[in-house]
Amino acid sequence: MRQRILRHGKGVAGMYRLYGVEDFANLVVHMALEELAVPYEAVFLDEPGGALKTPAHLARHPLGLVPALETPDGVIFETAAILLWLADRHGGMAPAVDDPARGAFLSWYVFANNSLHTGAMDLIHPYRVAGDGLARAVAEGAHHRLRERLAVMEAQAATRPDWLRPEAPGILGLYLSMLMRWVKAFPYAPDLAISVQDTPALHAIATACETRPAVIRAAAANGLRGHFFTDPEV
Fold first, then answer.
1. pLDDT at 212 (0 to 100)
2. Which CATH architecture has domain 4-90?
3. Beta strand 74-77 with 40-44: parallel, antiparallel or unpaired?
4. Residues 6 or more apart in contact with residue 89 via CB below 8 angstroms
5. 94-145 residue pLDDT tens
6. Which CATH number fits domain 102-212: 2.40.10.10, 1.10.3660.10, 1.20.1050.10, 1.20.1440.230?
7. At 5, is the pLDDT very low, low, confident or very high (cuts 50, 70, 90)?
8. Contact, 171 vs 83, CB < 8 A?
C-alpha cells in the first residue's frame, strides 16, 4: 500500500499529523491547519489499497474512516470534533468559549454537521443506506432535505454574523464550502446535483474561501485547482 506525506512548518514538538485521503473530509481539516499556520504533516492513505482498514488506522479511527488527527494530547477523529478542537486550541476561527456569540455559533455548527454533512453523504452514497435497489429513492429524499436545510443555512449566512462572513469564514465557512463542493461534484445522479450558486450568501463565502492562500495550498495538496468550491470539476 502506498501513502504520501506532506510536511508543513518547522519543528517536531507539538506537530500535528493529519491522516486522510485526497479530496475526502480531511480536506477541511487540512485547510484549517493551513489557516492556523501550525506545523503539521498530512498523510494521504491508499484507500483503494485497503489502508483505512489496517490495524494501525483502525487504532486511530474505530470505523476506518478519515480524517484522524494525531495531536500531543492523543488522536481525535470526526471532522467536526477536530475542527472545533483546533479552533479552541489556537483561537481565531470560532467564537471563544466565553464569547456571547458562542451559543449561536455552536447551534449552526452542529446544524451543519448533523443536517448538512449527513444529508450530503446520503446524496453521494445512498446505496450505503438502503442498497442499490433503493439508492435512487434515498438520493432523491436527501436532495429534497438538503434543499430545505440549505435554505435555512442560507438565511442565517445572509445575516453575516461575525463567525460566518466571507472575509473571515472560520471553521464553519470552510466546512460549508467543502460540503457545497460535494453536493455539486459527487451526487449519486447528475440531475440531483445542488449548486452553491443557488444560495447567494453561501456562494459569497465559498467564493472567498477558494481565493484564500491557505485554502489554495491545502486544496492543491488534495489535487484541486480552479474554482474547486463554486464550480468544481470531478
1. 98
2. 3-Layer(aba) Sandwich (3.40)
3. unpaired
4. none
5. 999 999 999 999 999 999 999 999 999 999 999 999 999 999 999 999 999 9
6. 1.20.1050.10
7. confident
8. yes
